[in-house]
Structures are given as C-alpha cells and as structure tokens.
Design a protein that fits this description.
The N terminus is likely disordered. This protein has a single domain, classed as Alpha-Beta Plaits (2-Layer Sandwich), CATH 3.30.70. It is of the alpha+beta class and 114 residues long. A 4-stranded antiparallel beta sheet has the order 2-3-1-4. The two termini are 27 Å apart.
C-alpha cells in the first residue's frame, strides 16, 4: 500500500466532536460588526490548535424554521479534552465578550459524529 495513503487512513479519526453555534444578531449589530464577528471567529479557529476544523455560513434555508438564527458556525474537535480546553480559553472568552452586545440569541449543540 502507498505510504502516503496508509498514513492518511491511520490519521483519520473515526469520530469527530462537532460544536454547532447558531447566532441571531440584534439591531445593534451593523453589517460591519457582523463582518467583524465572522472574521474574529475564523481567526480564533486558526489561533487555537485544539480546533481540528472550522467552517461557517449564513442560513439560506427556504423552510422558514430558523427561528431568526442567521449564522451557523461549526467547530470540530478531536476529543472532549480539546473542547474542554477551548471553552475557558482566554481567546474564546475574549471573543464571547466581544459578541455579547450584538447577539440576540445563540444556540449551541454538540454531538459526536456517527
């Protein structure tokens, strides 16, 4: 077997811990502020090595079941220890403090992939 292929197979985790964060911004959140929040979350994901992967997007579901939640951020961890290090991390707390005045509602769901 190709060493590179074998290495990829060995390093592929069987399960991933997904941390789903959904935001609804309030009236104080201007377009500029929302752009800053998007950028700050992406930078946070690059700065913290406990984050395995990160992606985000803006809701475009035609079903109308979003309850006002507009932004979805998906943070992926390899372990519960990584998530446990992330949540109280000073950079994460700084991010949460920054967004506080602009968030109307937030929903967080964590799950292990199957």
């Amino acid at each position: 077997m190709n060493d590179r292929l074998e290495s990829n197979i060995v390093n592929t985790p069987t399960q991933l811990l997904r941390h789903v964060v959904l935001f609804n911004f309030n009236d104080q959140a201007t377009e500029d502020v929302v752009n800053q929040i998007e950028q700050k979350f992406a930078v946070l994901a690059k700065e913290l090595n406990v984050i395995h992967d990160f992606e985000w997007g803006i809701n475009n579901s035609p079903e109308g079941l979003d309850k006002g939640l507009t932004h979805c951020f998906l943070v992926t961890f390899l372990s519960e220890n990584d998530r446990a290090a992330y949540l109280p991390h000073p950079k994460h707390k700084e991010f949460v403090e920054f967004i506080g005045p602009y968030v109307e509602d937030v929903t967080v769901v964590d799950y292990w992939t199957k």
